[in-house]
Design brief:
By secondary structure, the protein is of the alpha/beta class. The protein contains 15 helices and 22 strands. Helices cover 41% and strands 21% of the residues. The strands form 6 sheets. It has a 7-stranded mixed beta sheet with strand order 12-15-16-11-10-18-19, with helices on both faces. A 6-stranded mixed beta sheet has the order 7-6-5-8-9-21, with helices on both faces. It has a 3-stranded antiparallel beta sheet with strand order 3-4-22, with no helix packed on it. Strand 13 and strand 14 form a beta hairpin. The longest helix has 25 residues. It is globular and about 75 Å long. The relative contact order is 0.13. The protein binds NADP nicotinamide-adenine-dinucleotide phosphate (NAP). NADP nicotinamide-adenine-dinucleotide phosphate binds next to helix 8.
Length: 457
């Protein structure tokens, strides 16, 4: 059985019975059938369905927000804006899909290979399995599903075991919006069942958002079956603050980036790297902003930080913090804990070789790392096995352009909050994964890029 537990008070919310083998087979059959019909619809029709999905999300945002907050502890305000972001993304893809997926004409009329006309067509692959995490229970799923479905694929969701209520609500969103049965289905399965489903011939590809070990396992199964995979994995994003940065804004954004969603974001600023000459001033500002955080019941409007989603995640943060202190880091604030409620921690004097530098820290733990100068700051930023996002703070635009290119990450946000946004690609390098979500690039991950070369006879 899957059990949803409210992490704020540990109350059991609901239990869900896993799908039987017969039910799984039924859903795979349904996905296969639905793909034939769904992919044959004109693009404009699929686009209209996804506009309706946006309407459904907007209409029910309070209800979905409350469900997310209850199951994984994010504040209701954050949960509702997550639903709104999903709705905005429906509109973005509905507005842009015809341009993104339009045939691309290629000039092949040359002496070495004349053709009457040549073009590239972008066609769907089939049922795509999505293995998803609990930290943004709606957004992570929707940012795959919206472009994937508009492109003509159908979706099969295996959500994280602690948010099965959200998983079923997501299936309802598509049903309520009138999409044909089978266009998007939720599987109530555990991680062990992923292998059998991914090996099924009817499933054509997989996207996984989650930890490195989960990604390695799923990608190796996909590889053994010669199936396309996209991996969105962990990160240890650097936030580099140079001496000429606007320190007040940088500190406020750094704390927001690190602490939102109780620190459980893949693109949170996990390592603050600061040039020596401004470190003291930046530290004081960061401390000030951490002190403004109001912990409490995530349903309450005054709360700005709720609990962590599960006890074992809070255990991990405690371990990483203590292990770093044992190696010389200094705790400036935080660390009290009541169940899943962890007081935000700030560690100073963090260095490579400490857990808080080398590992992904998935909770309210901010760390200060001193850099000798600009070159040292970039060296430290890149001294990580991860390469998801990053942020760079400087008022010198020439420097920003030059250094942004030197940072080893899937994205660099200069003087702003690192975020996901439907208009720009999202994804990582190194052990943060491969492939991209969002934007035109993300939409084209799960299509057959088909060359059509036509000669006159
Ligand atoms: P997780 O334990 O890897 O779980 C993610 C999903 O994978 C869940 O549905 C989980 O199912 C499933 N899973 C776990 N092990 C599996 C395996 N061996 N085979 C198949 N499926 C498996 O990660 P999490 O703790 O839920 O999420 C936090 C991680 O996700 C962090 O590392 C974070 O950085 C990363 N993340 C990355 C992004 C990004 O876009 N790059 C976004 C958000 C989160 P069960 O729940 O049933 O175990």
């Amino acid at each position: 059985m899957f059990t949803s537990v409210n992490p704020y008070n540990q109350k059991k919310l609901k239990t869900y019975r896993p799908d039987s083998q017969t039910a799984i087979e039924q859903k795979l059959k349904q996905a296969d059938r639905a793909f034939a019909d769904w992919s044959a619809l004109p693009l404009a029709d699929r686009t209209n369905y996804l506009r309706k999905v946006g309407d459904t999300l907007t209409k029910n945002k309070q209800q979905y927000g409350e469900l997310m907050t209850a199951e994984m502890g994010k504040t209701l305000k954050e949960a509702i804006s997550e639903v709104e972001k999903c709705a905005t993304t429906c509109a973005f893809y509905a507005d842009n899909a015809s341009a993104f997926l339009a045939d691309k004409s290629i000039d092949t009329d040359r002496s070495d290979g004349p053709a009457h006309k040549s073009f590239i067509a972008y066609q769907p692959l089939g049922p795509v399995l999505a293995v998803m995490p609990w930290n943004f229970p709606f957004w992570q799923v929707m940012r795959f599903a919206i472009p994937g479905l508009i492109a003509g694929n159908v979706g099969l969701l295996k959500h994280a075991s602690n948010v099965m209520g959200c998983a079923l609500a997501l299936e309802d969103v598509f049903r309520e919006s009138g999409l044909p049965e089978g266009a998007f289905q939720t599987l109530l399965i555990d991680s062990k069942s992923v292998e059998g489903i991914l090996k099924d011939k009817r499933v054509k590809a997989v996207t996984l958002t989650g930890s490195g070990p989960a990604g390695a396992s799923v990608a190796s199964i996909a590889g053994s079956q010669i199936k396309k995979s996209v991996l969105e994995l962990g990160g240890s994003d650097a936030l580099v603050v140079l001496a000429d940065a606007s320190l007040e804004k940088a500190a406020e954004t750094a704390v927001k980036s690190r602490m939102q969603n109780a620190g459980q974001s893949c693109i949170a600023a996990k390592r603050f790297i600061i040039e020596k000459s401004v470190k003291k001033q930046f530290t004081d500002l960061v401390l000030h902003h951490i002190e403004q955080i109001k912990q409490g019941d995530p349903m309450a409007s005054e709360t700005t930080m709720g609990p962590m989603a599960r006890t074992n995640l809070a255990d991990d943060i405690e371990r990483q913090s203590q292990a770093s202190i044992a190696k010389g880091a200094k705790r400036l604030v935080g660390g009290k804990r009541d169940g899943c409620n962890v007081q935000p921690i700030l560690l100073d004097n963090v260095k490579p070789g400490m857990a808080a530098f080398d590992e992904e820290t998935f909770g309210p733990l901010a760390v200060l790392i001193e850099a000798k100068d600009e070159a040292d700051a970039i060296r430290l930023a890149n001294k990580s096995d991860f390469g998801l996002g990053s942020a760079l703070w400087t008022q010198d635009m020439e420097k920003a352009d030059r250094l942004a290119r030197q940072i080893q990450a899937g994205s660099v946000f200069v003087n702003g909050l690192m975020r996901s946004d439907a208009r720009v690609p999202f994804g990582g390098i190194k052990t943060s994964g491969f492939g991209r979500e969002l934007s035109e690039e993300g939409m084209k991950e799960f299509v057959n890029v088909k060359t059509v070369w036509v000669e006159k006879v």
